Amino acid sequence: MPMSPVLKRLLPPLLMVLLGLAGLYVVTVIYATGETLLAGVMLVTLVCFVWIYTSKRTYAYRYLFPGIGAALIFVVFPMLYTIRIGFTNYSSTNLLTFKRATQYLLEETYRAEGATYTSELHADGNRWRFRLEDADSGVTFATEPFALGAEGTHLTLKAQSATGLLPSDEMPLKDLIDRQPFLKGITVVMPDGGQVRMTGLREFAPSRPQFTHNADGSLTNNETHDVLRPNFKTGFYETADGESVTPGFQVDIGWKNYVDIFTDTSLREPLWRIFTWTIVFSTLTVVFCTALGMVLAVLLSWENLRFRGVYRLLLFLPYAVPGFISILVFKGLFNNNFGEINLVLNGLFGIKPTWFSDPFLAKTMILIVNTWLGFPYMMVVCMGLIKAIPQDLYEASAVAGAGPITNFFRITMPLILKPLTPLLISSFAFNFNNFVLISLLTGGLPDFLNTSTPAGTTDILVSYTYRMAFQDSGQKFGLGAAISTVVFLMVAVISMIQIRSTRIAEDTKR
Amino acid sequence: MAIVIDKSQRWRVVAAHLFLICLCALVIFPLLMVVSISLRPGNFATGSLIPTTISLEHWRFALGLPVTNADGQVIIPDLPVLRWLWNSVKVATLSATTAVLLSTTAAYAFSRMKFGGKKASLVGLMLMQMFPTILALIAIHAIFSRLGHTFPAFGIDSPWALVLAYSGGIALHIWTIKGFYETIPAEIEEAATVDGATPWQAFWRVLLPMALPIIMVIFLLAFIGAVNEYPVASILLRSQDQLTMAAGMKQFLYQQKYLWGDFAAAAILSGLPIAVVFILVQRWMISGLTAGANKG
C-alpha cells in the first residue's frame, strides 16, 4: 500500500523527534544514577546524531558518523582516559568512587548489645519464613513470609511469637550459603521493637549501622564515637589521629605516579631494565626476521629454482596460523621437562636447557619464537619489492661477471632497503608492544628477585603494565596508566620517524 | 629454457634446495608435532613424530565427550572448548558485520563526497591506527566495568562489550575500501543519480554490489582479527563460559594442570579453519590492495 505523500514527508522528522526524546530520557536516567561521565558522552553522541541526521549541510557526515563515532568513542576516548587515570590513585585499595565508598561505609554494621537468636529458614509454600529462638530463654518467634530476592535489596520483616515448630522443611545449608548476600540485607523487627539482623549462618543478633553521616560530610562511628573525615589527598576516610579506613576512593594525585616512575628506585630500577630489554627485543626481532625473510625472498625469486610455489606456501604457514595458538604450541614444545624440543636436544647432545627459568635462555627462546612468527611477512614483502627491480641491472652485472653474492649486496639489498625502511620501523613499533607473545609464552617470568612489585626479566613495557594492573601486584591501575602514557609518547616518537621515512621512501621513488 | 647451465649453477641449485628443505622442515616441525601430539595417548607421553598407537582421547576431550583413561576412570572434560569456539564465532561474526557496516559507509563519504576536515580525518585515522589498543587496556577495563553498572548487557563478561571495543578499530578497513571504491569509475553512480537516485540509493544499489569482493575480504579479515584478538578479550571476559578461544586456550598449559595432548587437539580444531581462510583471503587482499593503490 503506498503511503500518502504527507505521511511520507512527516515520518522521518517525527521518528527523529521520538528517537531524540527517547535518547534524552535514557541519558537522564543514567545521569540520575551518578554516572556523569557516561551520561555526558552519551549526550554529546546524541546531540551530534540528531544534528547530523536532520541538517542538510551535514549530509556527508551521515555516512561518516557511525564509523568515526565508533573510532572516537572506543579508540581515542580510551587513550585519553588512560592518560586521565595516570593522574589518579585508582587501584585495588582505591577502587570505588567517593560516593560509592561512602555508601559502602554507611552499609557497614556492628553487633550491638542485646539478646541473640538462633535462626532457621523454613519454606512456606513458595515463600520462606525465619524461625528465631532466643538463645537464653528459649522463647520462639516466627517472621512473616517473604520471597527470596537479589543481593542488595533491603527487607524489613515483623516477627511474632510463635510456639512449636514451623510445618515445612528447612533450607539446605548449601542453598543458605548461596543466599547469604541477600539474607544479610534483612532486618527483623522483634515484638519488643528491637531490630536484629543476620550475623551468622544460623544466628540473628541486634546490629546497628556502624557509621552515621553528618551534615559536614564526616562520618561518626556509632560504636567508638570516632569522627572520620574524607581526605581527598590520600583518598581515604581518616580518623582524627590520621588512621585510614578501608575502602579508599579515587582521587587526583597530580604527578605523583610520574614522580614515582622516575625517582622511586625500587620502581625505576626494574623499569629501566625492562625498557632496555624492550628495545633489544624489538631490534633483534626486526633484524632476524628481515635477514631471514630477505634471503628467502631472494632464493624464491630465483627462476632456476623449481617448486618455488610449494616452498612459498610452506614458509608462509607460520603467518597464517593464529598467533595465540602458535605461541602456546611453542610454550609446550619448549617445556623444560616434557617438551619435545628438549627431548630432541637431549637425544642429540645430552642437554636439557631450562628455557623457562634461566633469564638468558628465556630471552633466546622468545627471539627464536618471534623470528619463526615474523619472517614470513618480511619474506612476502621483500618478494614484492624484488619483483620491482629492473631486470637489466642483473643482466649488466652478469656481463661484468658478478656472482650472486655481489648481486645481492650491490644491487638487491640497497634497492629494496629504502622502500623497506618504513615497514621495518612499523615492525619495530609492533614488537615494541608485542604483548601477546610475552604474555602467552613466558608471562614475563622469570622474575627479578629484588623488586617491590613483581617484574620479570622477559617483561616488555606493555606486559609489565598489564601485570601491574591485572595480575599479581594489587591492580595498580593509576601507576600502570602512567607508564602506558609514557609508552604512548615513545610510540608517538617512533610513528613520527616512520612517517618521515615513508615520505623519504616515496620521494626517492619519484 | 635452452640456456646451458654451467656446473657451479647446478651446485647452487642443489644447495638452495637443501637449504630450503631444511628450513621448511624446521618451520613445519612444530605444526606437524601438534598433529602427532593430538593423536598420542596421555598428556605426558613422549614418542616419535609418527605416533605408534593412535588414540582419540584428546579429540574427545576437545569435543566435550567423556573420556575413559587407562585406569578405567571416566573423565568429563572441564574446559568447554566447543563453547569457547562458539563464543569466538559469535563475537567475530558480530564484530566483522559491524566493521563492514561502519567502514563501507565511511569510505563512501571519503571517496565520493566533499566535506570539511576530510584530509585531516583521513590522516587522523591513520595516526590512530599507530597506537596499539593494548596501551589503553586499563581505560577499556575501567570504561566497560563502569558501563556494566548501568547496562549489564555491555559490561564485563558480555560478548557485546567485546563487539563494542572492537568496533573502533576500522581505520585500516576504511583506507582499504576507499582505495577499492576509487578503482570504480564514479560515472556509473553519476548515471544513476541522473536517473533520479538519491546518493544513498547510488551507494546502496550501485556501488556496494560492485564492491562485493572487497567487502568479503574485509569481513573475513575482521573476522580473523576478532578471533585472534587476545589482550582485550582476556580483560573483558572473566567467567569460564564466556571466554573466547583466544582468551581460554592458555588454561590448557598451566604448570599445575598440564594438558598438552588435549591442547593440541583443541588447537587444531580452532586453528586449522582460520589458517585455511587466511591463506585464501591473503591472495585477495594483496590484489585488492594493489588495485586500490594503483589508482589512489
What does this structure look like?
The complex is a heterodimer of chains A (510) and B (296). Chain A is elongated. In chain A, the strands form 2 sheets. Chain A has a 7-stranded mixed β-barrel with strand order 2-3-4-5-6-7-8. A 5-stranded antiparallel beta sheet of chain A has the order 9-10-11-12-13, with no helix packed on it. Chain A has helices spanning 5-32, 36-54, 59-85, 98-106, 173-183, 256-263, 265-300, 308-320, 323-333, 340-349, 359-387, 391-399, 404-432, 435-441, 461-470, 477-509; strands spanning 109-111, 117-124, 127-134, 140-143, 155-161, 186-189, 195-200, 203-209, 211-213, 219-221, 227-231, 236-238, 244-245. Helices cover 57% and strands 12% of the residues of chain A. Chain A folds into 3 domains: 5-85, MalF N-terminal region-like (Methane Monooxygenase Hydroxylase, Chain G, domain 1, Up-down Bundle); 109-209, Beta Barrel (Periplasmic binding protein-like II); 260-509, Orthogonal Bundle (MetI-like fold). In chain A, helix 1 (5-32) runs antiparallel to helix 2 (36-54) and helix 9 packs parallel to helix 14 (435-441). Chain A contains 16 helices and 13 strands. With 510 residues, chain A is α+β, with helices and mostly antiparallel strands. The mean pLDDT of chain A is 85. Chain B has 296 residues and is an all-alpha fold. Chain B is globular, with a radius of gyration of 25 Å. In chain B, a hairpin with a 5-residue loop joins strand 1 and strand 2 (74-75). Chain B has a two-stranded antiparallel ribbon. Chain B starts with 6 loop residues before the first helix and ends with a helix. The chains are: A alpha+beta (510), B mainly alpha (296). At the A-B interface, helix 3, helix 8, helix 9, helix 13 and helix 14 of A face helix 1, helix 3, helix 4, helix 5 and helix 6 of B.
Biggest β-sheet strands, sense, barrel of chain B: 2 strands, antiparallel
The number of helical elements of chain A comes to 16
Q: CATH homologous superfamily name of the largest domain in chain A?
A: MetI-like
Number of strands of chain B: 2
Helix proportion of residues of chain A, in percent?
55-70%
- Determine the CATH superfamily of the largest domain in chain B: MetI-like
List the helices and strands of chain B in order.
HHEEHHHHHHHHHHH
Structural class of chain A: alpha+beta
Q: How far do the termini of chain B sit from each other?
A: 39 Å
Rg from alpha-carbon coordinates of chain B: 25 Å
Mind describing the biggest β-sheet of chain A?
7 strands, mixed, barrel
The poorly predicted ranges of chain B are 288-296
What is the helix fraction of residues of chain B, given as a range?
Answer: 55-70%
Provide a count of the helices of chain B.
13
Unreliable spans of chain A are none
Compute the number of strand runs of chain A. 13
Number of domains of chain B: 2
